[in-house]
Amino acid sequence: MSAAYFLHWSDSELAGATQDTPATLRLRFAAAACRRVDDGLAGYLRPLELVFEGATWHGDGPVLGGVAHGSLLLDGVPLGQAAQVLPLPLDRRGAVVCRLQLISGTVLHIDAARVVAQIRREAEFRESYAC
């Protein structure tokens, strides 16, 4: 599966997290800051969810708002460029460790056996007009 986008943790915004089953966590993005692979255009992709299966997690506050920093390791190795950028779509199995710090100060730590991010048909990419 080749990457169509690269997700940038910082500048992304979370709409929340839901627990589907005792071991499945879904992180919903209100706006996922991305760069399109084919032309390098920066913008925002939505809707987007990261699904962690076989997961345990803990956070010290609400999982809502802007992401300040993030990383995702797969079997101890950063996934993406220094773990700051994730290729999308994504479907990986192994020892997944994700750590997010939100602008609010909330820290979320997730350990999982699989991480999946599918780009749904209704997903829209909007170009960023930031200077």
Q: What does this molecule look like?
A:
The protein is mainly β and 131 residues long. The protein is built from no helices and 12 strands. The chain has strands at 5-8, 13-21, 24-36, 42-46, 48-53, 56-59, 65-74, 77-78, 85-88, 90-102, 107-117, 124-127. Strands 2-3-5-11-10-7 form a 6-stranded antiparallel β-barrel. Strand 7 and strand 8 form a beta hairpin. It is globular and about 40 Å long. The model has no long low-confidence stretch (mean pLDDT 91).
Topology:
Layout: E1 5-8, E2 13-21, E3 24-36, E4 42-46, E5 48-53, E6 56-59, E7 65-74, E8 77-78, E9 85-88, E10 90-102, E11 107-117, E12 124-127
Antiparallel strand pairs: 1-3, 1-9, 2-3, 2-7, 3-4, 3-5, 4-12, 5-11, 6-11, 7-8, 7-10, 10-11
Strands, count:
12
- Portion in helices: under 10%
Total helix count? 0
* Strand ordering within the main sheet: 2-3-5-11-10-7
Q: What is the H/E string? A: EEEEEEEEEEEE
Instruction: Report how far apart the termini are.
Output: 32 Å
Point out poorly predicted stretches.
Answer: none
Instruction: Let me know the largest β-sheet.
Output: 6 strands, antiparallel, barrel
Gross geometry:
globular
The portion of residues forming beta strands comes to: over 45%
**Mean of residue pLDDT?**
91
What is the alpha-carbon Rg in Å?
14 Å
- Summing up helix and strand content along with how strands pair, one would put the structural category as mainly beta
